[in-house]
């Protein structure tokens, strides 16, 4: 049995990856139709990281991510209907239609947000790690961000403080090779991001981000390390098939490059593992795709039929304790 | 009641709240071993230990960011930024995170943290260490911005800030730490955030101010009183949310208004107060509103030049003459 | 089912795109994800992919056309289905090459001239906002007031001084003989000349304005004052001289209670709006040697009778002595004029603009009345007449107001609640 996961768990992970991909494709369609506003950053091609990593998280562990967050929200167990509703700005969205695509969150899942200021959530994750140590809890924080964030001050301030205070934070870099359109080697003095951990005496390692089982295995170890010792820096090498966001001219890469990565597609890789270990046959996988297709219909219908937020929502949650201006 | 300094009052508030609530802790540069750059937390490390009195690296972004994270996870951090000038290094955390998370995630995230910091000029620290950019922080919905001008208010407001569920930016004034005043010993002594206070009653002119300039305004009022001019002095205490009611009521009575602030005049507290008075009490004004503020230059090191640029008692007195059409 | 392929939104700020090139041609088979066309946005060239499989049945726009986001560019369907209805729906809706969605300059709404130079009003009287408000409430003509502020700006103090002066200025007969050619009209009889005082000018202007603009109607009602007089006697037995309560104080309090029930009598007309005042501030007409002035008891609905009495007395005294303060005379929302002390049985007053109504109160008299048993006995009665502005209220409502007022005065313990 690969990776000590049961057949059911593996099939569930496969199903999640397919769902994430289909949801992203659908989101792109709804975006071009003008139903989704603002920016839309798709996770297609990177599904293995979220699914593998979230599988290793315990329910009471904490999660923070950057703005390419739809896949993470679904892998963390948020209701895909409410994720899609948020993209459409509906009252039923996970953030009540006030956050949008880049700002998904769910307190009940300890998922403290998609964050859209590059690197801005690394200090937050560090602080949650501090609270865990303060309260002497057996928990960890998973903080996910792109390789572009590792050149900003926050990365260094956060790794340093987490190391000084030995905080239980796993810093997970999704290195998809491009910070928007700038290739990693043109923006970072070191292209192997995990090596940056040594500056702060933070344990670190790379992982194949297109292999969901490898990600899961590495993340389980990293989380355990963090709980016991302190921060851990993991670099998942990956690739996004679609542009940085909708409307990306993609002048910075070739179609051939995308095709090379597609040859290592994370969903297909898990499919071949399942088949080679006789855990599923082609028909079973086909059935999963069909089920997901059906589920997607319900997701889109729910999002489209959901109500707009009330006018009153405009003024809600500016403060927990609003003080009326006299 | 005890007659103590502002420093002692703030220290008292922190100590009382740390005893009251195990979740309250302090973090910042030099808050522990050193005892605080302004000695506010002297003795705290011995009293509360390293867990609750945490020296940090010189890294304002992560000081505020980690405090936000700890608040999200249920603690009550009091993060100290050594001076308000360094708060600019944490501006993104203050503005894009602390002020936004509760709203953007539809109430799912709470940031009950206090950022204590120190502002103000007049100590020959030159341009980058002497600023009073209080209004910059007051610009953002989602933050509460407090700036006390008396020891009692400092204690009561800081305690309220620590107990508040929202992020509070708490601005102390570097030259007020030695100011003495009567401060209640009561551990439940709280001053509400968002309530302006009439510090001196008068009928002839209204002076609105806060923080250090409250003291300057009160001195001016004393001086004016000898000439038979009775100034009403209102202490805003909180810049956001701004409590205009006492100001409007006072202007309805005196019909004349002077606003005194230490920061620059452009886009300042005076501009805001004047605009709101125009909106709510236009028909009660008997003279144009006057603003007393810092001259529009970065503060210089040279003592004489520095004092020229900062508002003085005489500037307030002159502004009062102006609105009374005297001389 | 055939579907429209529309100009996609490729970026949050994209409003339109240029169709640069059709990659597929009509009749080509499409798989989901196939590139159908290339469009150019203001940022880049982007591929338009098909979200479904099928056949490219119809191209609706030529390459080179600028198309707004969301407008159809092609029809995708199965090979043989009828797309006629879809086509017809599009006819005339698709812009031809080069003329898409151009907004002509004439359609651009004119924006306000930011740099417009304000017209300078020649001869404008300088006055502070509070002075203007007071002058308007008191009906004072600002050109008559001397300003002592910078550049002659009229201040609150100047208005107060003006009001005091006016009140003190008793008309003096002019001793010089009339001119040889007396001003018109003349009836050929000798006369003494009295100059019109500022306060008289104000009364003249405002009363004329009221009578000309406000269609007045009048309703009179008689009140049994037996109980009120008795209550007053009992109260005053307990009170020192300076706090004693007058019949008029009781009428003020009763009116305030009734006005709360009939807010349209406590209102004013402002263009298309009737402003119903949230406060009940009752003006009391006070006769001075120089003319008439009203002092204002604020918030009569909130204050106990005893306080109304004390405040009214103080203000009336100050007015008679020419010492009234600005706050004494501004802000009234309803007026009461009482000529009872002159033995007047009943009269009608002119509304004090912009108020909706004025109450004229006559004397309390001992009169013969027929009681419930049909006997002729001595009773205590007072007549009140409301003058109301027909633009704001009607007879029935004014009558109901009087009834409410009468009810309070006839059960005067309600004045003490």
CATH architecture of chain A: 3-Layer(aba) Sandwich
Q: Which two chains have the most extensive interface, and how many residues on each? A: A-B, 48 and 50 residues
Number of strands of chain A: 8
Q: CATH first level of the largest domain in chain C: which class?
A: Alpha Beta
Largest sheet descriptor of chain C:
6 strands, mixed
Low-confidence stretches of chain C: 94-122
Averaged pLDDT of chain C: 84
CATH class of chain A: Alpha Beta
Oligomer description = heterotrimer
Whole-number tally of structural domains of chain C = 2
Please report the total strand number of chain C as a whole number.
18
CATH superfamily descriptor of the largest domain in chain C:
Chloramphenicol acetyltransferase-like domain
How much of the polypeptide of chain A forms β-strand, as a percent range?
A: 5-15%
Task: Indicate how many domains the architecture of chain A comprises.
Answer: 1
Radius of gyration of chain C: 39 Å
Question: What do these coordinates show?
Answer:
The complex is a heterotrimer of chains A (326), B (327) and C (417). With 326 residues, chain A is α/β, with parallel strands linked by helices. Chain A has eleven helices and eight strands. Chain A has a six-stranded parallel sheet with strand order 2-1-3-4-8-7, sandwiched between helices. A two-stranded antiparallel ribbon of chain A has the order 5-6. In chain A, helix 2 crosses helix 8. The model of chain A has no long low-confidence stretch (mean pLDDT 96). Helix content of chain B is 36%, strand content 20%. The model of chain B has no long low-confidence stretch (mean pLDDT 97). Chain B contains twelve helices and 14 strands. Chain B has helices at residues 6-20, 44-48, 60-72, 91-98, 101-104, 134-138, 151-163, 212-226, 245-254, 269-281, 303-309, 313-323; strands spanning 2-5, 24-28, 53-55, 76-81, 114-119, 144-146, 168-173, 180-183, 197-200, 205-209, 231-235, 238-240, 257-264, 290-294. Residues 94-122 of chain C have low confidence and may be disordered. Chain C folds into two domains: 3-93, RNA polymerase II/Efflux pump adaptor protein, barrel-sandwich hybrid domain (OB fold (Dihydrolipoamide Acetyltransferase, E2P)), CATH 2.40.50.100; 215-416, Chloramphenicol Acetyltransferase, CATH 3.30.559.10. Chain C is α+β, with helices and mostly antiparallel strands and 417 residues long. Classes of the chains: A alpha/beta (326), B alpha/beta (327), C alpha+beta (417). Chains A and B meet through helix 5 and helix 6 of A and helix 3, helix 4 and helix 5 of B.
């Amino acid at each position: 049995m690969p990776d000590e996961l049961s057949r059911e768990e593996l099939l569930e992970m496969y199903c999640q990856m397919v769902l994430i991909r289909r949801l992203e494709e659908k989101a792109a369609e709804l975006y071009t139709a003008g139903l989704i506003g603002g920016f839309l950053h798709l996770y297609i091609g990177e599904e293995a990281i979220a699914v593998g990593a979230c599988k290793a998280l315990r329910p009471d562990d904490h999660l923070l991510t950057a703005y390419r967050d739809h896949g993470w929200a679904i892998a963390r167990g948020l209701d895909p209907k409410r994720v899609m509703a948020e993209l459409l700005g509906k009252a039923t969205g996970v953030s009540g239609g006030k956050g949008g695509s880049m700002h998904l969150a769910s307190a009940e899942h300890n998922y403290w947000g998609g964050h859209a200021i590059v690197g801005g959530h690394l200090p937050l994750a560090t602080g949650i790690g501090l609270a865990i140590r303060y309260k002497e809890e057996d928990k960890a924080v998973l903080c996910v961000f792109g390789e572009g964030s590792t050149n900003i001050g926050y990365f260094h301030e956060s790794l340093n403080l987490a190391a000084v205070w030995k905080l239980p934070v796993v810093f997970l870099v999704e290195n998809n090779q491009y910070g928007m359109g700038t290739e990693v080697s043109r923006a970072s003095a070191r292209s192997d991001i995990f090596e940056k951990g040594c500056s702060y005496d933070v344990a670190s390692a790379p992982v194949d981000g297109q292999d969901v089982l490898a990600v899961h295995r590495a993340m389980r170890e990293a989380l355990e390390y963090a709980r016991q010792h302190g921060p851990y820096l993991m670099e998942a090498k990956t690739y996004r098939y679609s542009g940085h966001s909708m409307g990306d001219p993609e002048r910075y890469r070739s179609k051939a490059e995308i095709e090379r990565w597609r040859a290592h597609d994370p969903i297909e890789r898990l499919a071949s593992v399942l088949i080679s270990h006789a855990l599923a046959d082609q028909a079973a996988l086909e059935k999963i795709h069909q089920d997901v297709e059906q589920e997607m219909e319900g997701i889109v219908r729910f999002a489209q039929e959901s109500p707009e937020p009330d006018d009153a929502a405009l003024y809600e949650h500016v403060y927990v304790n609003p003080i009326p201006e006299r | 009641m005890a007659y103590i300094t502002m420093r002692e009052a703030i220290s008292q508030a922190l100590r009382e709240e740390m005893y009251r609530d195990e979740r309250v802790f302090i973090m910042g540069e030099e808050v522990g071993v050193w005892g605080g750059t302004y000695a506010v937390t002297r003795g705290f490390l011995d009293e509360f230990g390293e867990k609750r009195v945490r020296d940090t690296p010189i890294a304002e972004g992560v000081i505020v960011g980690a405090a936000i994270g700890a608040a999200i996870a249920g603690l009550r951090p009091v993060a100290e930024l050594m001076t308000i000038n360094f708060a600019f290094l944490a501006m993104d955390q203050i503005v894009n995170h602390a002020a936004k998370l509760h709203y953007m995630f539809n109430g799912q995230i709470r940031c009950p943290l206090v950022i204590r910091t120190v502002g103000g000029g007049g100590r020959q620290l030159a341009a980058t260490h002497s600023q009073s950019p209080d209004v910059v922080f007051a610009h953002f919905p989602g933050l509460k911005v407090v700036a006390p001008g008396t020891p009692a208010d400092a204690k009561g407001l800081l305690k309220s800030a620590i107990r508040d569920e929202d992020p509070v930016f708490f601005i102390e004034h570097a030259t007020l730490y030695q100011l003495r005043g009567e401060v209640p010993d009561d551990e439940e002594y709280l001053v509400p955030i968002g309530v302006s206070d009439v510090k001196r009653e008068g009928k002839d002119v209204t002076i609105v101010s806060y923080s250090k300039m409250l003291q300057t305004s009160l001195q001016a009022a004393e001086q004016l009183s000898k000439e038979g001019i009775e100034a009403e002095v209102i202490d805003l205490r909180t810049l956001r949310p701004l409590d205009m009611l006492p100001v409007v009521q006072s202007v309805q009575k005196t019909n004349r208004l002077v606003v005194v602030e230490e920061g620059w005049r452009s886009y300042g507290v005076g501009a805001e107060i004047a605009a709101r008075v125009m909106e709510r009490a236009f028909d009660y004004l008997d003279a144009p509103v006057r603003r007393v503020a810092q001259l529009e230059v970065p503060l210089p090191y040279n003592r004489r030049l520095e004092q020229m640029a900062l508002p003085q008692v005489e500037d307030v007195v002159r502004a009062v003459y102006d609105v009374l059409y005297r001389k | 089912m055939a579907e429209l392929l529309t100009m996609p939104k490729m970026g949050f700020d994209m409003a339109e795109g240029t169709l640069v090139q059709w990659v597929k041609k009509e009749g080509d088979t499409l798989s989901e994800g196939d590139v159908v066309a290339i469009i150019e946005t203001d940022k880049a060239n982007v591929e338009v992919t098909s979200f479904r499989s099928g056949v490219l049945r119809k191209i609706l726009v030529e390459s080179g056309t600028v198309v707004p986001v969301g407008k159809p560019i092609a029809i995708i369907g199965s090979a043989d289905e009828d797309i006629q209805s879809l086509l017809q729906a599009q006819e005339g809706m698709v812009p031809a090459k080069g003329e898409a969605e151009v907004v002509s300059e004439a359609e651009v709404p004119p924006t306000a001239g930011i740099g417009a130079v304000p017209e300078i009003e020649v001869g404008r009287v300088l006055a502070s906002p509070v002075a203007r408000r007071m002058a308007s409430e008191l009906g004072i003509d600002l050109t008559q007031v001397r300003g002592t502020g910078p550049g002659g700006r009229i201040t609150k103090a100047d208005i107060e001084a003006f009001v005091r002066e006016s009140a003190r200025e008793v008309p003096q007969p002019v001793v010089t003989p009339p001119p040889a050619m007396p001003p018109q009209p003349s009836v050929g009889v000798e006369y003494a000349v009295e100059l019109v005082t500022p306060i008289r000018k104000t009364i003249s202007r405002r009363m004329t304005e009221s009578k000309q603009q406000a269609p007045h109607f009048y309703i009179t009602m008689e009140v049994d004052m037996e109980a009120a007089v008795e209550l007053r006697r009992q109260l005053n037995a307990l009170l020192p001289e300076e706090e004693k309560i007058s019949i008029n104080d009781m009428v003020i309090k009763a009116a305030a209670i009734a006005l709360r029930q009939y807010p349209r009598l406590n209102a004013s007309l402002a263009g298309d709006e009737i402003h119903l005042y949230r406060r009940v501030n009752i003006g009391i007409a006070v006769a001075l040697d120089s003319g008439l002035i009203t002092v204002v008891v604020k918030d009569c609905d909130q204050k106990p009778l005893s306080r109304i009495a004390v405040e009214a007395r103080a203000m009336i005294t100050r007015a008679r002595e020419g010492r009234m303060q600005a706050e004494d005379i501004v802000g009234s929302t309803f007026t009461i004029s009482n000529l009872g002390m002159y033995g007047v049985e009943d009269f009608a007053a002119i509304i004090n603009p912009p108020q909706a109504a004025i109450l004229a109160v006559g004397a309390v008299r001992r009169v013969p009345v027929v009681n419930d048993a049909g006997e002729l006995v001595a009773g205590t009665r007072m007549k009140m007449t409301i003058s109301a502005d027909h633009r704001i209220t009607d007879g029935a409502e004014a009558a109901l107001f009087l009834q409410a007022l009468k009810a309070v005065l006839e059960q005067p313990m309600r004045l003490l609640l």
